[in-house]
Every structure is written in structure tokens, then in C-alpha cells.
Design brief:
2 helices; alpha+beta; 4-stranded antiparallel β-sheet; Pnp Oxidase, Chain A
Length: 127
């Protein structure tokens, strides 16, 4: 049995999850960002976080610098999440500040600037 794309999307849209924007700067200085609902604290000592993005996302480009930021939900979270999930050309159009040379959403409730330790391909297929 397989699940239809529409059914899968509808079910996933009903799940309650935090919203964050992850951004990175590549070796040429270009900004990349994506909306994620998967930022997880892995460890307090040492402090480690994890997030998931689709395979092939520019946020996981191995040539990108090691800076990434997680901007927590803000009062304008829906607008920001939709912007970073949409057209890449418009993602950094508004409310962006630099934090240690990394672009972050200015209206976020909090930020983390992180060094990347590993990129792992993973996932399961719903049945």
C-alpha cells in the first residue's frame, strides 16, 4: 500500500511542530535558507542541535561554510515560514540581520549560530 502525495501532505500539515528558519552562507558568500519543523536539541554538553531538510537543499551543500542559524518562532512566524518555504529569490527580502556573519531572521525569539559537524542522509518511506 502506498500513500498519495495529497494524503501525506494533509496529514503532515496537521502535526503540531515548532517552526524555525535555518540559514547558511556558501563559500561564495551567497545566502541560503529554509523553513524547517525539525530542530531538535541533541545534547547540552556539548551543546548540539539537529535539523532535517530535503535532500539536495542548498542548506546542506557540503561546500557551504559551517555557519547555520536556527531562528525560533516569532509573532510573524507564519509569514516568515511561508517566505522561506517559497521562492528562494524572496527568502531574504525582509527582516534579516547578521549575527556572526550569518543571516538570521531579525524578529525571531532566539538564535543559534552553529558549526556543522556532520551531514547525514536519512529518511523512511511511508507505507
Amino acid at each position: 500500500m502506498t500513500v498519495s502525495t495529497r494524503t501525506f501532505r494533509d496529514v503532515m500539515a496537521c502535526l503540531a511542530m515548532p517552526v524555525a528558519v535555518v540559514s547558511t552562507v556558501d563559500g561564495a558568500g551567497r545566502w541560503h535558507g529554509a523553513t524547517v519543523g525539525s530542530v531538535v536539541s541533541l545534547s547540552l554538553d556539548p551543546p548540539l542541535v539537529m535539523f532535517a531538510v530535503r535532500n539536495g537543499s542548498t542548506c546542506t551543500n557540503r561546500s557551504a561554510t559551517a555557519l547555520a542559524s536556527a531562528s525560533a518562532s516569532s509573532p510573524r512566524a507564519t509569514e516568515t515560514a511561508e517566505r522561506f518555504a517559497g521562492n528562494p529569490a524572496g527568502r531574504f527580502a525582509a527582516d534579516i540581520v547578521l549575527l556572526k556573519a550569518s543571516p538570521v531572521v531579525g524578529g525571531a525569539l532566539g538564535w543559534l549560530v552553529c558549526g556543522r559537524s556532520d551531514v547525514v542522509e536519512a529518511g523512511i518511506t511511508p507505507c
